[in-house]
Specification:
Layout lengths: L1 E4 L10 E9 L9 E3 L6 E7 L2 E5 L2 E5 L5 E3 L6 E4 L5 E8 L5 H4 L10 E3 H4 L2 H11 L4 H19 L4 H12 L6 H8 L3 H11 L4 H18 L4 H9 L5 H12 L3 H7 L3 H8 L2
Antiparallel strand pairs: 1-2, 2-9, 3-8, 4-7, 4-9, 5-6, 5-8, 7-10
């Protein structure tokens, strides 16, 4: 298993959180649980070798090779699998409010969803998929998709400074900031902020705050810290231990002790630590 991180072009950097290529001669690890936890990022997925099987919220979907998919922002975990053959896919993870300025599509349409690019993006999705499938070299695919995203960005250019401020405030505080405080700081009501986030992020501010709060733990775990060393600090971020366990199950699909002691999730570690 090889994960190679790509530096986005300068024009795309404010909108992209992480950009990477997965390659394996034998597919995703079949001896491990490949758990993708919510991180506040919607994603563009381009499988070019082999298909990816995803399981989320009880639904199993197949992302087929040589197609284009968009994964909306999520508030629960996804489990990935593949057949045991050569596998390769490109993933572009957008900042929480980074996909809307490029695509101009309400992110609420993609919440907790896996969307075929032909359906979601219509002609653009079809044309990009066709062009990508005719490019055999991964570097050519990387260059082409960036060209297309930049062209869309120049066409749509629909950033919102209020959303940017709120997302940055939530991130810098690891989600530990009251939404009423954001309302006071921006001069807008909580209801209006919810509407803005529905359009630009796909998640309400309160839900995104919960994702950032959990990511504080997850990044430290992915970096090698043990659960026992982390738990005393973690409980301070939640109402009580039962609240933390409930959130942990939702974000990972497992109870904390089982996940940290029995689930290796090397795939999840690598894409988290190296971002």
């Amino acid at each position: 298993m090889k994960i190679t991180f790509v530096r986005p072009r300068l024009e795309l950097q404010p909108y992209i959180e992480s950009f990477w290529v997965f390659e394996s001669a034998t597919g995703l690890p079949d001896t491990d649980s490949n758990v993708v936890v919510p991180n506040g990022c919607s994603k563009l997925i381009i499988p070019y070798d082999n298909s990816i099987i995803s399981s989320a919220l009880g639904n199993i979907q197949v992302s087929r090779e040589r197609r284009l998919y968009f994964v909306g922002n999520r508030d629960s975990s996804t489990l990935l699998k593949s057949s045991s053959r050569r596998t390769g896919f490109i993933t572009i993870e957008f900042c929480p409010n980074g996909a809307f300025p490029i695509f101009g599509i309400p992110m609420s349409k993609t919440f907790n969803g896996l969307c075929d690019g032909d359906d979601l993006f219509a002609k653009w999705g079809h044309d990009v998929r066709e062009a990508l499938s005719n490019l055999e070299c991964v570097d050519q695919k990387l260059a082409f998709i960036q060209d297309e995203l930049i062209a869309l960005l120049r066409k749509n250019a629909c950033r919102n400074r209020v959303v940017e401020y709120c997302v940055n405030a939530l991130r810098s505080a690891d989600g530990r900031i009251a939404i009423r405080q954001l309302a006071q700081q921006t001069g807008y009501s909580r209801r209006y902020l919810d509407q803005l986030f529905k359009q630009h992020v796909g998640l309400p501010p309160k839900v995104l705050a919960g994702v950032f709060r959990f990511q504080k733990f997850y990044r430290r775990w992915a970096g090698g810290q043990s659960f026992d060393a982390l738990k005393s600090d973690l409980y301070e971020d939640y109402y009580d231990q039962s609240h933390f366990i409930k959130e942990f199950r939702k974000m990972t699909g497992y109870a904390p002790r089982k996940f940290t002691r029995e689930i290796g999730n090397e795939f999840g570690r690598r894409i988290s630590v190296s971002r």
